[in-house]
Amino acid sequence: MRHLHQDRNRQQTVAVYNADYRVLTHVSWQEAIRLLLRGSVYVIERHSPAVHIHSPSTIVELPVSVALREYVHIPYRPGNRVTRQGVLARDGFTCAYCGGRADTIDHVIPRSRGGQDSWENCVAACAPCNGRKDNRTPGEAGMRLLWEPYEPRERARYRVPALA
Q1: Tens digit of pLDDT for each residue in 25-78?
Q2: Which CATH number fits domain 84-141: 3.40.50.150, 3.30.110.30, 1.10.30.50, 1.10.150.120?
Q3: DSSP 8-state secondary structure symbol assigned to residue 17
Q4: Cα dist. 77→44, 74, 80 in Å?
Q5: H or E stretch including 138?
Q6: What is the pTM of this model?
């Protein structure tokens, strides 16, 4: 049997699953114990060897993961939507073809050829490069991208990519 005070240097988190067993979040071990004592969750997995939490009147075994007793509806939130301003900011207002100042966006694979409005298909471009590329792929236009377009993560959104 291990006691929690042996693990003080390590932040202990507990996985919380919805009633349909999809991961909702991770909470601190203290919040997990509160949820257990309230009866809002039940234990799915325990530590091996067991970790016990002691209070003056109770000893509780710390879980690794818990599930909610009742389903919690999570409303749909559309993902990271592509916008003109978002693409320009992600690329640092730098043209992906020449490295100059960008003021438009370009679809790497043109929409008329099945290209999508996606983070991986849109880059910032200056007006001359956008006009020169026209309704062609970069290879057909004899142009190359200075970096590959990517979907920015929520935390690192709009980070300027390193020029190749």
Answers
A1: 899 999 999 999 999 999 999 999 989 989 899 999 999 999 999 999 888 766
A2: 1.10.30.50
A3: E
A4: 28, 9, 9
A5: helix 138-141
A6: 0.49
